[in-house]
Amino acid sequence: MTADIQTNPTTDFVSWFRSVAPYIHAFRGKVFVIGFSGEMITDAKFVNFIHDINLLASLGVRLVLIHGARPQIQLRLDESQLETQTVMGMRVTDPAALQCVKESVGRVHHEIAALLSMGLPNSPMANASIRVTSGNFVTACPQGVIQGVDLMHTGKVRKINAQAIHSRLEQGDVVLISPLGYSPTGEIFNLTMENVATEAAIALNAEKLIFLLDMLGDTAASEIDNPATLPRELTVAESKLLLENKTPTTKPLVPDAIRPSLQYATKACEMGVARTHLISRHNDGAILQELFTHHGIGTMISRETLQALRKARIEDVGGILQLIEPLEAEGILVRRGRELLEIEIDRFTVLEHDGIILGCAALYPFPEEHACELACLAIHPDYRDFGHGNRLLKHIENQTISQGIHTLFALTTHATHWFIEHGFTEATPAELPKVKQNLYNYQRRSKVLIKHL
Ligand SMILES: CC(C)(COP(=O)(O)OP(=O)(O)OC[C@H]1O[C@@H](n2cnc3c(N)ncnc32)[C@H](O)[C@@H]1OP(=O)(O)O)[C@@H](O)C(=O)NCCC(=O)NCCS
């Protein structure tokens, strides 16, 4: 959806800017929790991620960052020649290992804080400064004894001090949290980034939880970008079916590298987080692409389906205009001003996707002549050929029938064949209702199409 600004600089820039404006408006003041792995910090692209974080913060998004430190901990353990046991994928953290964990996590934490604090000279966000804050926001408890093994200082989140985090966010700070937690008895626990990020997002009632995932190198990274492996969008119910491998397919749908994050993401949504996103960290600007484009580049999980076919409301006028104005300019649709659209908004049905209007259609009844007109049928160019036009038509047909009317007509200059393929037949202007005949524009010479329902 974001235009390639280089191909046609002026028009593409304007349409790109307009396309991101609704997101900027929608995200201001909202809490986003972003979890990223320790691998990401060692990547040369990490500084670009910091720019993106800076940009989001300057747009008024309230950011809580949770970092991992797995590779750094492993390196420190190797240096100390310490071997740790693993139970069900969890590392046993004995007192010696805990020392390595504290050192590694501390170092990583300070490195990120330093990067977030730098003035970003020669960057798109030069002179923008963000204040980073940390604290003992995470209370943890031990994982306990699993399969007869005491996991010692390996813990899980018990409570997040949401109030303290909110108060920092309100002051405009970016909150940076480590995968370490403290118990009321003064012990330190080694936690997973995913666990902390999920619990933080739930406790903060965040708008979004975003995981920048590190898979097993670029091959696996491309897996998550492949909609055949993991769909672009999932409801909680669909995600659960995928995790249980209950979808009708022979191949395993969820790669092991993604499974834990998908489980956490699904849990977060179930517990009230509006949307969770899984994105590959290997794509430069991944977070911006996911957040500011219709398509996104990762996988988004939400409680309910994001697509709705519904009656238009007055707040939709802007979105409908954005959709139909380019078609009006091309002469494909008859021009309607904002004022007329506002007056006739009740006649419109819209197809909405995650707050964006992707399609619209209007129904004008002519009761005396037992006919209805389908007008202003439009689908956003990026979303054509997915059956949306057909869905809108079916909806309009049902509305027509529910009014006791069985004749539907449409006037079109560019979509005659589409209508014919959907059961309409070509007619003459003389077959239109009288009022409509008087309004027929002989210069425009639209084709008249009629369907008997
Ligand atoms: C006409 C329109 C609403 C169809 O929307 P859509 O969501 O792409 O439609 P569907 O997905 O249900 O149907 C897609 C099929 O219709 C075909 N199709 C799309 N637009 C067509 C057109 N103008 N003429 C002929 N066929 C067309 C596609 O090739 C596709 O065919 P396929 O299934 O064989 O691949 C959309 O193209 C549009 O917004 N056009 C501009 C506005 C317009 O002309 N409106 C009608 C006047 S009110």
Structure notes:
By secondary structure, the protein is α/β, with parallel strands linked by helices. It folds into two domains: 9-306, 3-Layer(aba) Sandwich (Carbamate kinase); 308-452, Aminopeptidase, CATH 3.40.630. It has 16 helices and 23 strands. The protein has helices spanning 9-27, 38-42, 46-58, 70-79, 95-117, 162-170, 193-203, 217-224, 236-243, 259-270, 286-292, 317-329, 338-343, 388-402, 416-421, 434-439, and strands at residues 31-36, 62-67, 86-87, 90-91, 132-133, 138-142, 145-146, 149-150, 155-160, 174-177, 180-182, 188-190, 208-213, 233-235, 275-280, 299-302, 307-311, 348-353, 356-366, 371-379, 407-412, 425-427, 447-452. A hairpin with a 2-residue loop joins strand 18 (348-353) and strand 19 (356-366). Coenzyme A (COA) is lined by residues 327, 332-333, 375-379, 384-390, 410, 412, 414-415, 417-418.
Span of the ends, CA to CA: 36 Å
Structural classification: alpha/beta
Strand order of the largest sheet: 5-10-2-1-13-15-16-14
Percent in helix: 25-40%
Name of the CATH architecture of the largest domain = 3-Layer(aba) Sandwich
Indicate the low-confidence ranges by residue numbers.
Answer: 1-6, 216-228
CATH class of the largest domain reads: Alpha Beta
**Total DSSP E strands:** 23
**DSSP strand (E) fraction?**
15-25%
The value of Rg in angstroms is 27 Å
Q: Could you please say which CATH topology of the largest domain applies here?
A: Carbamate kinase
Please give the domain count. Answer: 2
Helical segment count: 16
Largest sheet: 8 strands, mixed
Bound molecules: coenzyme A
Instruction: Indicate the overall shape.
Output: elongated
- Mean of residue pLDDT values: 88
* The CATH H-level homologous superfamily of the largest domain: Acetylglutamate kinase-like
